[in-house]
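look at this stuff:

>
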Amino acid sequence: MRVYLPSTLPALRRLLDTGSLGDPPLPAYAVTGALREWYAEGDEEELEYAALTLAARASVRLLDADPDAPRRRVVVAADVEQVEPAPDVDRAAVRVLQHVPLRLVGAVHVDDPGAQADVAIAADAVVEADLGGEDAAFRMEQAEGHELQWYATQEIGPLLELS
């Protein structure tokens, strides 16, 4: 199953250094049955984009928790076998129950450096947005207006050198 794991640039560095994303269970988003049911008219590509977008929002939560991380959203796309639904989190949320070594990673999606200011504002507002604050939700939307860039796994090292 293709999953989208929220991440940060320091976590990408650890992925390269250790060869794994971390210890399971790992939070992720995927095209689940509940997402398909909710998004009844979407094709597979639209459903995957919806899961990727949710992972990008979760990446902002990770940035809020790590004030030293560069303010760029990161999502790791990986193909895994051991997942369980996490409907208590979101209709597309899953928990990855296995280690995710670099060889299972298909690509990473990362904000362009030009998004940093909006992502920084969103990271400061994410908790308030989660609680329903309209101004904070607008700040999140500003960050979400930036498209994530696609990088192949062999481009992670050069990407981190430029960051």
In short: The mean pLDDT is 94. The chain is about 45% helix and 20% strand. Helices lie at 9-18, 33-38, 44-65, 116-130, 134-144, 156-162.
